[in-house]
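Hello K.,

You asked for the raw outputs rather than the summary table, so here they are, unedited. I folded two proteins back to back in the same session to keep the settings identical. This is the first:
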Amino acid sequence: MALDFETGQESWRIFRIMAEFVEGFEVMSPLDKAVSIFGSARTRPGDKYYQECEETARLLAEAGFTIITGGGPGIMEAGNKGAYDAGGRSVGLNIVLPHEQVSNKYQTISMDFHYFYARKVMFTKYAAAFVCFPGGFGTMDELFETLTLIQTHKVNPLPVILYGSKYWGGLIQWLKSALAPEYIDAGDTDIFKLVDSPQEVLKLVKQGVKKPWWGQPIRPAIKSNGKAAGSARLSASSASPVRRNDQADDGPIRRVSRFGNRRKRQK
């Protein structure tokens, strides 16, 4: 049924949004040691990056990591296939599009999303690392949102790995010359690392989930009664062996009146 803005039916959309988050949290929360892989849906199976992504996912799966992708073709399929063929856990978070993205067949867990933002929460909340292969606008969106969340300390400083120096080299050069230090700190380009082999990815993921290479992990402080007491930054030496973003404290819940910011009328 189409939503009618004039009769107030638009407000019912919140339940559809809520349902995607609830299902996502229930399905994804048991996962541990997951790596989100981003990349183009247009990459062909015979392409160099497809084959190297498949090998990367295979190595990560054999090392005990769950692989999370967007569930579609191209790089997403390669990531799922590598994990699936290795007998690992292979998660596909498919998005429903007007031209209908078809889910690939190499998934042990599959979910469909209508809303991009609900889907992206699942990419970041349950990941312990991120690997970005060459891609288009969608890949750039996923990369820069992840970088922004880490830069602003909204999520843990987990490993972000860019695969393919030929593809990413020009962008990195532009970031360092045009953005730093006026629009970003010079050290912000250290959030990510550039690699050219699946073995390098595996090595950096293992290192990065144990000890962050940028910033400090964000974990809830613990009171003497054992309950969380807001966010606190811990030294790298006190970080848990494998972190993910749902282990960071969400912070206190604030109740704000919808009329709280209005000025009182003068009598």
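The second followed immediately with the same parameters:
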Amino acid sequence: MGALDALLRGGLRPAPVSSAAELSAALASRPGSPFERALGVAAAQSLTAWAFAAGYLAAVEALVPRTAGSRAVLCVTESGGNGPAAMALSLGAEGEGFRAQGEKSFVTFGAEAEAYVVLGTPGTRADGRADLRAFVVPRDRAGLSLAEGPRTPFVPEIAHARLRFDGARVEAAELLPGPGWAYARRFRVLEDVHVEGAVAAMVLRWALEHRWDADLRADLYAALRWRERFAEELGRVPTGERLPPSMLLELDAAQRGLRGLIGALPWGGVDDATKDAFLRDQKLFTLAARARSVRAAKARERLGWA
């Protein structure tokens, strides 16, 4: 029985975690795809932070399957931003590998991670733009250092860090195939699907436990089932390929639908502390609103709808 079916039948009970290590252990103990495991763990939480974290870690694993079994996080943002032009962390060639120099300024679970998926640049392309590559290094690599990052007013349970590379060795085998920016672009979709699915699973458990309106329960279930299928479809499209515009428009519609459901919850039976924390943490889902809007607009342009 899959995690979603178990949830529907009341087979997933509250089992809250309170640390990244506990979360990783819970994810590792479950069978199935990264999405299924995230759903099963997230449904047992009461705080958005840990549902988000389950979806986030699962999305990183879905992006880079070689990180399975380790607590891997994505490192993109630098002091200049998180777009391709802001990527300044350098990869200087040395023998069969590279030496990395620079800093990632906002790394989710940076201090708790066991491995880092990082974007860096070995130089510039013929058109003058940075030649970005993605690579994976373990936390204990010499030349890496961490500093505490800022706490956000939403999901304050999740820590962030700054990750510094001072000549850290990157072996050629640690480079991921294909253009580096393809990984950042694909992760944005994977993160949306996995994190939203994880939070929806937590909300669906509340809806089932407290016997909320049957139509709402059905709509939440449908939102989860769609994301499960979409995650499977994503896994069949190589990271270096652009996603079809039809997929991106489906995602946009699904996201708007889920936001509508989440924004009108009845809250019957849920204690005030859980409700207040959930409402506080909704800022998390508006951070990338502009990027999502641009993604949908570009998909419409590719279809000639603009």
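The CA atoms of residues 71 and 114 lie 5 Å apart.

Happy to rerun anything if the numbers look odd on your end.

Regards,
P.
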